[in-house]
């Protein structure tokens, strides 16, 4: 399992993902689930992945290979004319990989993977998409300004209650860490370290990128402070009257 979040704010796009993959309690590994393509002054694209590890790695490797090999450069993440076309490219690649991976007569469900794609191409607005295992996709809206994939249920309540598109980067990271902390404490299949990336509108370069390890002092402060705040809030609520 995994947990990844992409948010669209008034200032830019913010992404966070965990790095744990597991095939049972005795087979736990760390793999990066955040992948980037950029061309200075032209585009930045960020892809988060969740699901079958072999599928997600094959999709990312195929997309990456097509940006480097001259004879296979089209279609390429570095040449798509729009973010919509980039989302279509990822969706088509997902379908291609799953179709090749699933043996004849076997359900493709076991090979499923989902993705969050966000970024900006020069001359256009930043966009954020959720891409399903079937290859189709949806885009964020004013009503749904963020996407989650993987183990979403534990970290979603704080995002729904507190996220505001006017938040600055510092506030957004604080909110994401609370969301991830809740998930980390509730599901062992989601684990540290965490990858964080911020893209500021119209810069066409990655603005901030960081790997947050288990010993990160700010993560520890957020985790402990949130636990204390929840206990205080609970005690302040009125008791049930019989």
Essential attributes:
single chain; 242 residues; alpha+beta; Glutamine Phosphoribosylpyrophosphate, subunit 1, domain 1; 5-stranded antiparallel β-sheet; 5 helices; 12 strands; 33% helix; globular
Please, could you describe this protein's structure?
With 242 residues, this protein is an alpha+beta fold. It has one domain (3-235): Glutamine Phosphoribosylpyrophosphate, subunit 1, domain 1 (4-Layer Sandwich), CATH 3.60.20. It has helices at 53-68, 83-101, 156-162, 169-186, 217-236, and strands at 3-8, 12-17, 20-22, 28-30, 34-39, 43-51, 113-121, 127-131, 137-139, 146-150, 194-200, 208-212. The strands form three sheets. The chain has a five-stranded antiparallel sheet, with helices on one face. A five-stranded antiparallel sheet has the order 5-6-7-8-9, with helices on one face. The longest helix has 20 residues, at 217-236. It is globular, with a radius of gyration of 19 Å.
Annotate the secondary structure layout.
Elements: E1 3-8, E2 12-17, E3 20-22, E4 28-30, E5 34-39, E6 43-51, H1 53-68, H2 83-101, E7 113-121, E8 127-131, E9 137-139, E10 146-150, H3 156-162, H4 169-186, E11 194-200, E12 208-212, H5 217-236
Antiparallel strand pairs: 1-2, 1-10, 2-11, 3-4, 5-6, 6-7, 7-8, 8-9, 11-12
Helix pairs in contact: 1-2, 3-4, 4-5
Strand order of the largest sheet: 10-1-2-11-12
Distance between the termini: 42 Å
What is the helical fraction, as a range of percent?
25-40%
Quickly count the domains: 1
* Strand coverage percent: 25-35%
Radius of gyration: 19 Å
Order of helices and strands: EEEEEEHHEEEEHHEEH
Structural class, please? Answer: alpha+beta
In the CATH hierarchy, what is the superfamily? Aminohydrolase, N-terminal nucleophile (Ntn) domain
CATH domain fold name? Glutamine Phosphoribosylpyrophosphate, subunit 1, domain 1
Q: Average pLDDT, to the nearest integer?
A: 93
How many E-type strands?
12
> CATH first level: which class?
Alpha Beta
Give me the CATH architecture, please. Answer: 4-Layer Sandwich
How would you sum up the major sheet? 5 strands, antiparallel
């Amino acid at each position: 399992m995994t947990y990844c979040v992409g948010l669209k704010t008034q200032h830019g796009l913010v992404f966070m993902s965990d790095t744990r993959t597991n095939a049972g309690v005795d087979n736990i590994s760390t793999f990066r689930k955040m992948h980037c393509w950029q061309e200075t002054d032209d585009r930045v694209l960020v892809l988060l992945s969740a699901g079958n590890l072999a599928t997600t790695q094959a999709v990312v490797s195929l997309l990456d290979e097509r940006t480097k090999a001259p004879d296979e450069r089209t279609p390429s993440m570095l040449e798509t004319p729009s973010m919509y076309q980039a989302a279509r490219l990822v969706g088509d690649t997902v379908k291609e990989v799953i179709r090749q991976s699933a043996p004849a007569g076997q359900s493709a469900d076991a090979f499923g993977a989902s993705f969050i794609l966000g970024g900006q191409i020069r001359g256009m607005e930043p966009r954020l998409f959720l891409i399903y295992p079937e290859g189709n996709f949806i885009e964020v809206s004013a009503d749904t300004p963020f996407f989650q994939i993987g183990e979403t249920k534990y970290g979603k309540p704080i995002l729904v209650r507190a996220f505001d598109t006017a938040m600055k980067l510092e506030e957004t990271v604080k909110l994401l860490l609370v969301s991830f902390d809740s998930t980390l404490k509730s599901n062992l299949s989601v684990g540290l370290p965490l990858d964080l990336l911020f893209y500021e509108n119209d810069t066409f370069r990655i603005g901030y990128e960081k790997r947050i390890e288990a010993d990160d002092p700010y993560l520890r402060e957020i985790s402990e402070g949130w636990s204390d705040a929840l206990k205080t809030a609970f005690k302040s609520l009125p008791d049930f009257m019989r």
